[in-house]
UniProtKB/TrEMBL annotation:
<dbReference type="GO" id="GO:0006164">
    <property type="term" value="P:purine nucleotide biosynthetic process"/>
</dbReference>
<comment type="function">
    <text>Catalyzes the oxidation of 5,10-methylenetetrahydrofolate to 5,10-methenyltetrahydrofolate and then the hydrolysis of 5,10-methenyltetrahydrofolate to 10-formyltetrahydrofolate.</text>
</comment>
<comment type="pathway">
    <text>One-carbon metabolism; tetrahydrofolate interconversion.</text>
</comment>
<dbReference type="GO" id="GO:0004488">
    <property type="term" value="F:methylenetetrahydrofolate dehydrogenase (NADP+) activity"/>
</dbReference>
<dbReference type="InterPro" id="IPR000672">
    <property type="entry name" value="THF_DH/CycHdrlase"/>
</dbReference>
<dbReference type="GO" id="GO:0000105">
    <property type="term" value="P:L-histidine biosynthetic process"/>
</dbReference>
<dbReference type="GO" id="GO:0035999">
    <property type="term" value="P:tetrahydrofolate interconversion"/>
</dbReference>
<dbReference type="GO" id="GO:0005829">
    <property type="term" value="C:cytosol"/>
</dbReference>
<dbReference type="Pfam" id="PF02882">
    <property type="entry name" value="THF_DHG_CYH_C"/>
</dbReference>
<keyword id="KW-0368">Histidine biosynthesis</keyword>
<protein>
    <recommendedName>
        <fullName>Bifunctional protein FolD</fullName>
        <ecNumber>1.5.1.5</ecNumber>
        <ecNumber>3.5.4.9</ecNumber>
    </recommendedName>
</protein>
<keyword id="KW-0554">One-carbon metabolism</keyword>
<dbReference type="GO" id="GO:0004477">
    <property type="term" value="F:methenyltetrahydrofolate cyclohydrolase activity"/>
</dbReference>
<dbReference type="InterPro" id="IPR046346">
    <property type="entry name" value="Aminoacid_DH-like_N_sf"/>
</dbReference>
<feature type="domain" description="Tetrahydrofolate dehydrogenase/cyclohydrolase catalytic">
    <location>
        <begin position="8"/>
        <end position="119"/>
    </location>
</feature>
<dbReference type="Pfam" id="PF00763">
    <property type="entry name" value="THF_DHG_CYH"/>
</dbReference>
<keyword id="KW-0378">Hydrolase</keyword>
Amino acid sequence: MSQILHSASVKKLITKGLKAECKALKEKNIFPQLKVVLVGSDPASLIYTANKKKYCEKIGALCEIVALDEHISESDFLKTITQINEDQLVDGCIVQLPLPKQLSHLDVGSLVKKEKDVDGFHPENLYALMSNHLGPKNFISCTPKGILTLMQESQIEISGKHVVIVGRSMIVGKPLAMLLTNNNATVTLCHSHTKNLREITKNCDILISAIGKAQFIDETYISPDKNQVIIDVGMNTDTQGQLCGDVHYAKVENLVSAITPVPGGVGPMTIVSLAQNLLQASKNRLSL
Ligand code: NDP
């Protein structure tokens, strides 16, 4: 029987702590506040931003979705970000991706100032992660941070393990590779040009998939005799229109020692990490 790495109990425990932290901050007249900049009305982005707002409010933080017109000019968009950067009552800001065409060339990671960069995309935060010099004033990208938390809370050993990550995006694969390397894993980062992917995934201890292809990882990528741990980051829709991961859960579940479900695995941890980062930013205000 494999261990199913549900995030619900981990989330519940962390949420309790975050509520208490938020209350304590408010007693010191710090009201944690997040701004989520949303341009246009991409259906998935509307759901993601609504979920972020709902969770922030659940822990007692303020969250405003700054909804901007899909055709907003670059200068008006930048003006909005500058206003948020300068607003002393705002602790964190994230820009929901993807951005429309006229803004897609912008280096989003550098727009939000590093003290408010609760998405962990700012070059200084990325450098701190890369050099393993993370301090309380640095933020780690939310999905990698959430994956690490889920693994640690589920007693999945990381040190000395061979981790294969499939997917090299700036929001998941690359920062996750750094984070797990910092935690003493030996990391192989794969992508669409990787040759013999199956040979690589079959030989690892922990396989993390962040590809964005429904049920791509099936039993042919797994070694049943290796007690592998599978972390599925993917959020896709299957042929029936249902939410599913990158991993073919039914075909893989009984061949591995542990596996995250979709939904109910990595997804909720991303939002929890965002709230953790927000409260960290609020606490940093106290020591400014
Ligand atoms: P991207 O599209 O930015 O990156 C996908 C990566 O997968 C790329 O590096 C690409 O390689 C690689 N890839 C694509 N096809 C293959 C293949 N056949 N073999 C090997 N590698 C392949 O995706 P994201 O990182 O933004 O997201 C990945 C998935 O994770 C999506 O389903 C997304 O919805 C989900 N996601 C979930 C989150 C959560 O909270 N649960 C948060 C963020 C994302 P190459 O670089 O060569 O093109």
